[in-house]
Fold this protein.
Amino acid sequence: MTDSPALWIVTCGAGPAPYVGRLITEAKDRGWRPYLIATPSAVPFLDLDELASLTGAPVRHSHRPPDNQRSGPRPKADALIVAPATYNTINKWANGIADTYALDILAEAIGNDIPIVVLPFVNASLASRAPFRRSVDQLRAEGVHIMLGPGEWQPHPPGTGSERLSQFPWSRALAHVEEATWPHVKS
Ligand SMILES: Cc1cc2nc3c(=O)[nH]c(=O)nc-3n(C[C@H](O)[C@H](O)[C@H](O)COP(=O)(O)O)c2cc1C
């Protein structure tokens, strides 16, 4: 790889979303070119102008009209992080649903053989649901690294999410993609 590797970040509509700039800044500092894709529900959480100026590219959150040319020179992803990942997106993605631009990107990414790291922000009640547990298992079986469980990120009790925002492990998600991208390099 001669250019800096491209890191696509998909952000969903959950509490840590307004702070995704921290991940973008750290990724840039570590030599990645980050590009941000938001689900439609994430958009109200984000300052799109600020994030576009941080990445140097528009934040994509919808499909282009069918008669439009491809917009912008976004390079192919070398790795992808989904953070924060919602209950909704994890369930839809695992079940092959692609009804948003972000889910289309995620559906294809699994077939592209790149490192994918998912950092969920889901409370313990939602995380205990059988559909969610099945979705996590299905995505893991397809090679997706989901940061959930002992030694990773633990779901929070309902109603306490705001107390966990400052601990959200953005850096650890980046370390995981780096370990998968350059397995011979210690992070
Ligand atoms: C203020 C606010 C906070 C939310 N926090 C979470 C959350 O932490 N985790 C989650 O899974 N959903 C959360 N939701 C609900 C999701 O936004 C909702 O399920 C939405 O449909 C997710 O869409 P997406 O997966 O396309 O982003 C929150 C919604 C709002 C308005």
Remarks:
- The first helix runs from residue 20 to 29.
- The chain has a mean pLDDT of 94.
